[in-house]
Amino acid sequence: MVILDNHISKPGWCCSKFDGSGFFGDRYFNPDLWIKGLTMMASLFKGTPNVVGMSLRNELRGPKENVNDWYR
């Protein structure tokens, strides 16, 4: 059984509030590339019976984790 996981964008230790992968638009978290990657992986593994799910992203975190940025 396999679950695809896009935990962070830049390889390294996760997680800190300032790792650049914590929120949409952060240094290493381009939302357009993220959607493109999810789409590519879903298409690539469509029909593969042992791939049973996909983790969309690790929990959002960092300086933008506030009411004004959450509810734009």
Q: Please, could you describe this protein's structure?
A:
With 72 residues, the chain is α+β, with helices and mostly antiparallel strands. The chain has one domain. The protein contains two helices and two strands; from the N terminus they run βαβα. The chain has helices at residues 31-45, 67-70; strands spanning 2-5, 51-55. α1 links the parallel β1 and β2 (51-55). The longest helix is centred in the middle third of the chain and has 15 residues, at 31-45. It is elongated, with a radius of gyration of 14 Å.
Walk across the major sheet and give the strand order: 1-2
Helix proportion: 25-40%
**Overall SS class:** alpha+beta
**Major sheet attributes:** 2 strands, parallel
Share in β-strands: 5-15%
Taken together, the total number of domains comes to: 1
Overall spatial form: elongated
Q: Detail the poorly predicted runs.
A: none
Helix tally equals 2
> Termini, distance in Å?
37 Å
Write the element-wise H/E pattern from the N-terminal end onward: EHEH
Q: What is the number of E strands?
A: 2
Task: Calculate the mean pLDDT score and round it.
Answer: 86
Rg from C-alpha positions?
14 Å
Summarize the structure.
This protein has helices at residues 31-45, 67-70; strands spanning 2-5, 51-55. With 72 residues, the protein is an alpha+beta fold.
List keywords for this structure.
single chain; 72 residues; alpha+beta; two-stranded parallel sheet; 2 strands; 26% helix; 12% strand; Mannan endo-1,4-beta-mannosidase; GH
